[in-house]
Design a protein that fits this description.
single chain, about 350 residues, alpha/beta, FAD/NAD(P)-binding domain, D-Amino Acid Oxidase, Chain A, domain 2, 2 domains, eight-stranded mixed β-sheet, six-stranded mixed β-sheet, 9 helices, about 30% helix, elongated, binds flavin-adenine dinucleotide
């Protein structure tokens, strides 16, 4: 087995864990049923946004805050090892309120967040008008600014990670679905349709597919399920949207290449890959509520992805150090990638010796 560890699933989570474990001296093999990084990790908007996403204290909230702090160094190191430049913006986020009720909710959220270390400050309509001139002014009651939120391009991260992982000797088995895993006392076996291989440990990072895997030797895995999301994109001049802008369930952000991304629907539709024009229209209407000039424009892209839902985030051993779980990241798997990679690497380093 020679210090070999299998990572089952090559999304941003599996690749991050693979890269970190390889840096720690482990021999890593990643198995993916298709090309790595083409599922949720390809679809994601890429917000690094505890300010926008966290509204109560929880283990997930604490990990989100920790991972946000790790993110810049993670991206710097990924760029250095891969030679790929990654679009990461740290300009913060604003959340808009168009009624007193919405403003009160923002204030309440800010109070809860300040107790767990997430900073924000109020913005008056006049400030929005000055610094975000395209935002709808009609009925604007106020806003909050979250200086710590940011954005990254998940697709560039996955591209970089693939190169960095390979440079560290990680073997990528693309187009190889894992059918089953058996966890023994001294090893774990990984089965594909034509092979049965032995490793010192296995990491399950299958996103929304995680609990569909047949696993023996340990109790059944906690459930994972898909939560489908549509996103739309517009080609827009640079600096159309220099921070994340949120209103209600809608968010807008802009990549360095000009693509303005608007998200996202939340659908419990299983693994249905249909791209629905009506859902895209709803998103376009919501976007035009924030940026009225978009009402004149048609989105140039619509796409979907499956967020990995689960009752709770699973990062760590499951009844044996030879089986590590890394799934259930739901809406925040891009943000949580650095902390997940560090936790799994620490758990394996603490519990297993390279044989
Ligand atoms: C619309 C949308 C917007 C989002 N926006 C954000 C955001 O702004 N910020 C943020 O932090 N997160 C966001 N997310 C969430 C984020 O995308 C996910 O949490 C994250 O990508 C999960 O990564 P993963 O590696 O666990 O899963 P995935 O990227 O889905 O990877 C799972 C991998 O497992 C492989 N696989 C499946 N079955 C098998 C098998 N049997 N054998 C081998 N391989 C298999 C798949 O091919 C896939 O490559 C968003 C998600 C969606 C859908």
């Amino acid at each position: 087995m020679n210090g070999r560890i299998a990572i089952v699933g090559g999304g941003i989570i599996g690749l991050s864990v693979a890269w970190r474990l390889a840096q720690s001296g482990w021999q890593i093999e990643v198995f993916d049923k298709a090309q790595v990084g083409q599922e949720a990790s390809w679809a994601a908007a890429g917000m690094l946004a505890p300010g926008g996403e966290v509204d109560a204290d929880s283990p997930m909230a604490q990990l989100a805050i920790e991972s946000r702090q790790l993110f810049r160094a993670f991206v710097d190191s990924l760029e250095a090892e891969s030679g790929v430049s990654i679009d990461m913006q740290e300009a913060g986020a604003i959340e808009l309120a168009y009624s007193d009720d919405e403003l009160n909710k923002l204030q309440h959220k800010a109070m809860v967040q300040s107790g767990i270390g997430i900073r924000s400050r109020p913005l008056a309509p006049k400030q929005i008008e000055t610094f975000w001139p395209r935002v709808r002014r009609d009925g604007l009651a106020g806003a909050r600014f979250y200086p710590g939120d940011g954005v990254v391009s998940p697709r560039e991260m996955v591209t970089a990670m693939k190169i960095a992982a390979k440079a560290r000797g990680v073997e990528l088995h693309e187009g190889r679905a894992v059918t089953a895993v058996h966890v023994g006392d001294a090893y774990s076996d990984v089965m594909t349709y034509d092979s049965d291989r032995r490793f010192q440990a296995v990491v399950i990072a299958l996103g929304a597919w995680s609990s569909a895997l047949l696993v023996s030797g340990v109790p059944a895995l906690p459930e994972a399920y898909p939560v489908k999301g549509h996103l739309i994109g517009y080609r827009q001049p640079d600096q159309t949207c220099s921070t994340i802008i949120r209103h209600g369930h809608t968010y807008l952000l802009q990549r360095a290449n000009g693509l303005l991304v608007v998200g996202a629907s939340v659908e419990h539709a299983g693994f249905d890959r249909t791209v629905n024009p009506e859902t895209a229209e709803v998103l376009a209407r919501e976007a035009a509520q924030v940026f009225p000039h978009l009402a004149e424009t048609t989105p140039s892209q619509v796409w979907i992805g499956f967020r990995p839902g689960s009752e709770q985030l699973r990062v760590g051993p499951w009844h044996s150090p030879r089986l590590q779980l890394a799934y259930g990241h739901y809406r925040n798997g891009i943000l949580l990638a650095p902390v997940t990679a560090d936790r799994i690497t620490a758990s394996i380093n603490a519990n297993l010796r390279k044989q």
